[in-house]
Amino acid sequence: MPNFYTYFIASLPTLHVGAKPPFSFEKFLQMCEGLIPEDAISLLGSLRTLTDTHKGACAETLKKWYAFETALRNELVKIRASRKHKDAFKYLRNDGGAHPAIAHIASSAHRNPSPLEAEMFLDRQRWQVLDEIIFGHYFDLDVLIVYAQKLLILERWERIKHVHKERLLEEALRGSHVAG
Question: What pTM was computed for the model?
Fold first, then answer.
């Protein structure tokens, strides 16, 4: 199996936070076929779940990402639990480390009065951390891992926008039906 990482990565469109994804995650995996090894494609396909069970050349990239994501989720759990006067300990996951600004990120998101804007803020922070993680990598599997994670973020927002539009349309139709 040839390793055409350089060719493949150079052919991928640049992703921008908040933009529409250029293609689906499944299409991305299909595009990888024949250009990168099958085990790399399998690893990319497994990125939909938050489990740090991967070993090998890109283990450090995945370890950094999962450590950040777990620490962020744990911090959000702590904030939400304290607000509801619950014990957060039983909801926390094993923490693989901490990002220097994790408490600030979580509290800033929590203080936002709009849940949608808070989620967008969190995803912008995730995007920034992914950029930090990939610094110094150019044409390797680590770049594809970060690309895949960013693509998953964009897909999530595309689903959110689509659901939001459907809900608005339903409300508008209900309102015009009642008025008529």
Answer: 0.84
